[in-house]
Design goal:
One of its GO terms (cellular component) is membrane. InterPro entries: Memb_transporter_dom. Keywords: Membrane, Transmembrane, Transmembrane helix. This is FUSC family protein. By secondary structure, this protein is an all-alpha fold. The protein folds into two domains: 166 residues, no CATH class; 160 residues, no CATH class. Helix 3 packs parallel to helix 5, helix 4 packs antiparallel against helix 5 and helix 9 packs across helix 13. It starts with a helix and ends in a 7-residue tail after the last helix.
Length: 327
């Protein structure tokens, strides 16, 4: 609902080319799941603010035609702030993947100066609508009264507020890993002359774990395999040249599947995340579909390989570093 309603409005006013901004604002609804509403309000508000700041920063890069070094500095800023905020407020997912995705896509879309504010307002409106939808369960539970325990599930997740996260060496180690990974993957993608080099960057951020999480190579493998299968699904949808309504339906199903599966099995979730991401990118800047699909597979493999190298390096550091007794 959070993503479909704004896209329908854009179709009605003839501005489906603004779909990316509505979609990223709607991704606010991916946060706060299974949290009590007193905590969810904080989580969703923080997530919405991060999404909108990332979107606005991407817009500023696009309208000024920022040079590559400036784009890279902006990317490193989004990664650093995203990890610090996620660690401080206990966001799930704990990586800055959606913030990075919003920044990179919006930075790549040609933007005339006169349209910066309208495009930003589309994102703000979509985020506000997503916030209201995400919090609407509170009203339904109040309406149900004593029957709410029978009608609705428990809300057990209570994210911890950790103001000291900014001084946590593990948090800064994760930031350093992400920074090294995106710089290496992005440079390799550009040197190879692959189109859409930001996919390699997004793949690294998606694979690397949040602070204090296990460094697992299987996550990178799931990322690559899941993306290849997701690209196959996307090809079946995009290659026939479907109508805009079919594309909106694909985005809706993709967002739904991503939210259901992202915390259960990463590879399975990518069967939905990949069509979602590619369809949003296709609406934002239509390109030849075969090239889009090939770029996605090649750059995901490249980003996944870089992430595996960083995971192995992190394991080596942990193995040879000082040992502390288990708590």
């Amino acid at each position: 609902m959070a993503v479909v309603a704004p896209l329908i409005v854009l179709v009605a006013i003839g501005r489906i080319d603004w779909a990316a901004y509505a979609s990223f604002g709607a991704m606010t609804s991916l946060y706060g799941r299974s949290e009590p509403y007193r905590l969810r309000a904080r989580t969703v508000s923080v997530a919405a603010a991060c999404m909108l700041v990332s979107l606005a920063l991407g817009l500023s890069m696009a309208v000024t035609g920022a040079a590559l070094p400036v784009l890279v500095l902006g990317l490193l800023g989004v990664i650093t702030a995203g990890i610090l905020v996620a660690s401080t407020y206990g966001l799930f997912p704990g990586t800055p993947i959606f913030f990075v995705f919003a920044y990179l896509v919006c930075a790549q879309i040609p933007t005339p100066a006169a349209e910066v504010v309208p495009r930003l307002l589309v994102g703000v409106a979509a985020a506000a609508f997503a916030w209201l939808l995400t919090m609407s369960g509170w009203w339904f539970r109040r309406l149900a009264g004593d029957r709410s325990t029978d009608l609705f599930k428990l809300l057990p997740r209570e994210p911890l507020l950790r103001p000291a996260a900014v001084r946590d060496p593990q948090v800064w180690f994760t930031i350093a890993q992400n920074a090294a990974g995106v710089l290496l993957a992005g440079a390799l993608a550009m040197l190879a002359g692959i189109g859409h080099p930001y996919w390699a960057v997004v793949s690294v951020v998606a694979v690397l774990p949040p602070p204090r999480a296990a460094h697992s190579i299987s996550r990178a493998v799931h990322r690559i395999v899941g993306t290849v299968l997701g690209v196959a699904v996307t090809g079946l949808v995009l290659l026939p040249g479907p109508s805009v309504w079919v594309l909106i339906a694909v985005i809706a199903v993709g967002q739904f599947g991503a939210e259901i599966l992202i915390g259960r099995h990463y590879g399975a979730a990518l069967l939905f995340v990949t069509p979602l991401a590619l369809t949003v990118a296709h609406l934002a800047g239509p390109t030849a579909v075969p090239a889009l699909l090939v770029d996605r597979v090649v750059e995901t493999a490249l980003g996944g390989a870089v992430a595996i190298l960083i995971v192995l390096a992190a394991r080596a550091v942990a193995r040879h570093g000082p040992r502390h007794p288990a708590a």
